[in-house]
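hey can u run this one w/ pyridoxal-5'-phosphate bound, need the structure tokens asap thx
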Amino acid sequence: MHLETSYPVLPSPVQPLEHPLFKQHGVRVFIKRDDLIHPIISGNKWRKLKGNLAHAKALKKKGVLTFGGAYSNHIHALAYACQQQGLASIGIIRGEEHYQNNYTLRWAKHWGMKFNFVDRTTYRKRHEQGFLDELSNAYPDYLIVPEGGSNSLALSGMAEVMTELSEQQQFDTLMLPVGSGGSIAGLLSSTTRREANTQSSQRMLGVAVLKNAEYLVNEIEQLVNRQIDSSYETSWQLLTHHHCGGYAKYSAEDANRLADIVELTGVPFEPVYSGKMMLALFDLLEQGYFTEGHTIMLLHTGGLQGIGGQLERNIMPERLAKALQSHLPSAPQVQ
Ligand SMILES: *Cc1c(COP(=O)(O)O)cnc(C)c1O
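ok here u go:
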């Protein structure tokens, strides 16, 4: 009998993860599979977009305007989610027009997103009030959502991860990849987490996927404190030395280590986000970072569409590409 899966899959499943090194170091490892919430809308983007799209509809907006790079998971997820919700979408994209033929933007276009390609200087203004005012004057019927979807509506969507986890599996450390910091801020601001933390000492460990990410610590604290009272003691840490050379960069050796992990666990860890979390986990284990008996919960944040652009540009080493390619939905043909 064929059972049709209906989406979103919530709560997202928690699975035990097996690896000889986990046994050797006496730790238990679980993974929360937010990548399984939806086949197209990437895990944490699903959680971050939900509240934003509901807000756009409540305001009776015609659509949503947002910002992103040419390979952005956020752009891809938002274009699809808007189409599903009957909303129009506009993407302010960093880069040149020819990018619209790449895997990510072909899909976004297919789902009706209109692009506005801008150079780096213009793109840098994406957080400036003056620029945002200009955009809302030009597109009064559109709700403006920041890059990565990281705003207060996104934080409460992410916080639901903690509510789900409180009923799924106990753990000592929750680990996740960090880009703009919106996701970890959402998890930290969860009231469920604060209640749980009065009894246990759950820690959160973010793995920065970009270089020189120290500035994010402040941004994350600010995002969290905007959401909750600032006397709240946070027990979290941002690891800033596991970016593998910068955003979306990694060495041939990193790719081989990651291919090993994907093959051994059967979980599709892509090299931009969750793959870096995994490489960091293995480095930490080897350094004796976790005490024996420790339980680690990993958050798979999704983002598998990003594999598409890397395969297309032939920049992913063959072994890793082989291990990951079956997890990619096929792209529409360029017209
Ligand atoms: C956007 C993204 C992240 C980073 O989330 P932030 O909230 O920006 O820190 C992590 N993983 C995946 C797969 C993403 O697409």
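Residues 42, 44-45, 73-74, 148, 150, 177-183, 273, 301-303 surround pyridoxal-5'-phosphate (CB under 6 Å). anyway lmk if its weird
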